Amino acid sequence: MEQPIDQSPHAIDNMWSEVVEMPDNTKRDLAGAFAVLPAPQVMLGASGPGRDLYQRGLPEQGVASCAGCHGEVADGKGAAPRLAGQKPDYLKMQLWAFNLTARVHGPMNAGALKFSPAQIDALANYLAGK
Ligand code: HEC
Predict the structure, then answer these.
(1) How far is ligand 1, taken at its centre, from the CA of residue 45, in Å?
(2) CB distance 66 to ligand 1 below 6 Å
(3) Pocket test for ligand 1, best of 14, 61, 63, 69 (most atoms within 8 A of CB)
């Protein structure tokens, strides 16, 4: 089967076969089980380029503040997931996937397209508490 191009190859290789035939109630049960796990404890840096980008976005390039959607301390809000305490390599991979539109989400693609590799590293390290 030809794979659609708007999906991360990691998701296709590792996750699709796991969930394609999973019943909805199992998905709900799993989501409920993950939702009650304790959040990772992480101390976000008080200053630095990652923090500035996260809090302000890039207003001169029309990139909104990340905090506006993901929350002041990156603990997630509505559809925008928790980022604080996530593994830095995972965060980098997702920001690159949005940058390259391998992962599709309009607002995330719009922001990530504008970031340099150094800015992606800075954001990922800040959110991971490094
Ligand atoms: C307009 C709201 C909005 C803004 C602004 C925004 N995000 Fe997001 N972000 C989301 C949503 C919603 C998702 C979930 C997308 C999905 O369902 O695939 C997401 C997903 C992510 C993910 C993937 C998380 C995961 O667990 O896979 C990362 C990383 C991320 N955002 C980082 C950022 C950063 C860094 C910024 C600032 C440059 C930012 N976001 C700005 C709404 C936003």
Answers:
(1) 19
(2) yes
(3) 69
pLDDT-based confidence at 8, cuts 50/70/90?
low
pLDDT in tens, 55-98: 999 999 999 999 999 999 999 999 999 999 999 999 999 999 99
**Whose C-alpha lies nearest to ligand 1, atom 40?**
66
Q: Residue 100 half-sphere exposure, CB side, CA atoms within 13 Å?
A: 11
CB 54 within 8 A of CB 74: yes
Q: How many CA atoms lie within 13 A of 1 on its CB side?
A: 4
